[in-house]
Amino acid sequence: MDVHAKFARQALCLGESGQEKLANSTVLVSGTCSVAGEVCRALAISGVKKLCLCGEGNAVDGSDIDAHPLLKPGDEGTPKVQAMFRALASLSESVAVEVVEGKPKEAMLRHVDVVVSTCCLEEELVHLSQMCRQINVPFVHAAVQGVCGRVFADVGQQIEFFESEDEKSGTYAIEAITQEYPAAVTIIEEQKPALVTGDRVRFWGVKGMQGLCTGNLHQITVTGLNSFTVDGLDLKEAPTYKGGGYIVPERRSHVLCTQTLTDALENPTFPLAHGKDQSRMHDMHTFFRSLTQTSKGTSQSNLSAATFLRAKEVQENLARINPSFCSKVENGDPAALFLQRAMLSGFAKSLAPISAVVGSMAAHQVIIACTRVSCPLAGWFYFDVLKLFHAAQEKEDVTRVSSAGLQNSQTAAFGRNPLATELSQLRPFIVGLGGVGCNILRLCAQMGVGLQRYNGSITIADSKAVKPFDTARGGLFTAGDLGTPKVHAASFAVNRLKPQTSIHCLHCDFENNPETFHDLFWDSIDVICCAVDTVPTRLLLDECSVQRQKTFLDAGVSGTRGSIQGVIPHQSVQWASTRDPPQAGAPSCTLANFPYMTRHTVLWAREVFDNTYFNDPHNANEYLTKKDFLEKASKNRVSYIETLRSIASTLKTSRPLSFQDCIRWARLLFEEKFNNRIQQLLHNFPESMETSTGARFWSGSKRAPRPIFF
0.85 cut: is pTM over it? Predict the structure, then answer.
């Protein structure tokens, strides 16, 4: 498989240099729990050079398979590290995987670029992080305890990080430059430049002012929405600015020094939490520490919630670490008691969605540490599902439900209540099997959604086949799936993890397919999960969810950013009423004659492509097959004549009958677009032309074009 094609989309975020650094990185992952599996899985499909799995020789049991992304039925009795090794080897053939039994040693750490630990015992964590800091190896910690998970990253001291490719500022066209000190530059207003004081820029393509476009960086001070001054640049004696030119901002960077784990444990910060969440995160951090300091030297896989409920060590640790929280528990504070019950419920168990969030966040920190792209965490990241736990507790003991065959980790965390059965009977409809859709499908299966024995099912729809870049996201596709319909490859991969899951595959487009998506179909589903990247399909699914009174979940990613929105009938507004406004387009005259931004040329090329290879052939086919086509087309007087010309050109005057005719047609099209029209434009508006006010016509956003001679 072509490596460049596989990681093409990822390279758009990391840059070519960042992707190269990642491809030469070695990462050591200590632990074999579900979080470690999520980290390994994410790093394997991201394209690191080598993964070192470090763990004890514990064998796989049935409870391990529930939330683990790399374990499947049939692995019972096999050492976890060996089962994970086999799964990773089949997931990505380009990543080398090495198994190291036992705990990480300092000599081993010196040969890796990043260390990830999923250990839950504080003493071992601190020791490992101190070794990493001493030898300047970035350290990442990730762990899940029942309904809560956390991530921490220590990348070292005085490390420079650069903004990602999709965050950096673009190239901006110059409207004017003044001859003064300091020189003032005005950017064409429509571009809305994302510049801040202190940025450094380069100039290129400026006419006049010789010596400005030398490639040197100049620091700027922003003075307005589309203007700035160039610090220390004196242009009083420089030649007059004649027009044109662009500025290219330098990629921003930040020099950071992160906390050590020891300091972060005693003085925690929560940069992603706000307001009341800060206090809750601090209490959660305290309770997490009290659990990780209890029963030192005991394997956590052998500990249960009941063990901790009877242990005095937990309360003793709480009293020492956070006396105020302990006093709240002793005094019967409802919030403190609820948090204690939630943290202890299902302890030493991992829920698949929480493991996925925490593991993905940790893997992201590893990628940042390897590539130095984007900024790492500057404190603790805590994630919980306390609201779901509260809802589950309200249902507990209302109906005694057998949990046989359901997910052991969920039963341990939420108790025996109707929630488990409701999930098993759920019938979601997942549209789109890209990176987001594949993860939704896998996690639904791991949560026990759509079990056949409970009359549940998961319906998936996608019209595309697996391409190389699909194997670098989602984690369900391998090189052997290339060319296979996504729905079939994804169904096969999920059924290997969860054979009891019932999956219905629809290899078709969702739009314009009423034969498949009829009334009986909508009656057979409960939730619509939208994971497509086109707004029209999202709007159509949103409309269907409103009409059919179905819960609607929309999720998507763009570069390094992502979003998720849930719509519940009669409880929230529909997706269409909260979506972002459409991006403002460019006037047709700007695209055809006066483009000054890269986006303009792309939009022009797309318009030419659509007209040449879709609109014109479509009109010709409609004319040949539909008797009333001309009658309907004549109602649009603006485009009627142009439509007739395109039909005549497609069917008669420019119709190629041989390969030589195709070459001739392409050559004439090139001459028309890139030579004749440009020369005609310059004939009508010469470069020396001035407006009625005496200003140069070709100035500001108008850039004089140059014809291309074949």
Answer: no
